[in-house]
Design brief:
single chain, 171 residues
Amino acid sequence: MEVINVRSDNYSTIKKMRRHLNDPANIIVIAILADWCGACQQFKPIWHATVKNYMSNRSSSQKNKKLILATIQDSALQELNMANVQGFPTIRVIKNKKILHEKLGGMDEYTLMDYIKHAQKKCITISPELRKKKKPLRLRKPKQNRKSKKNKTNKTNKTNKTNKTNKTNKT
C-alpha cells in the first residue's frame, strides 16, 4: 500500500506511477486534480485528509494489499498516457490499465472513505512470506469427484433399463 503525488515537474514520481500502472496486481485509486480548478482546490484538503485517515487506521491485513492511492496533477496526464478526463476533479479506480470506476466531481470525506474501501476489497493480499520468496503462485486444477462420475453412469444405465422395460411392456 502506497500513497504517491504525481506532478509533471517530478519525473521520479511519473516513473514510479508508470510502474504501478503496469503492475496488473495493483488497484489504484487516483484523484486527478488541476491547480487552476476551484472545485479541485476545495476537494484537495478532503482527499489528503481522507487518505491520511485511511492510512493511519488500516489493519495489518490491509497493509498487505496492493492498493495505491495517487494524486495526479492534470499536467502529468499526458506523460502517463491517461486520456478521456471529462472534468476536474475526477476520481478513478484503475486495475491493469483499465478504468473500473470513475466519479466526476468531488465528494465528502465519508463517501470518499467508502469509495477507497470498496476499491480495497478488489485488491489481492500479498503475504509477507510470498514477498520474501517471490515465487510465482501456482493454480491447481480441481480434482474430479469419482463418485459423481459413477452416479452419472448409473443414472444413464437405469434410464436405459427403464426404456427397455417400457418397450417390452408395450408389446
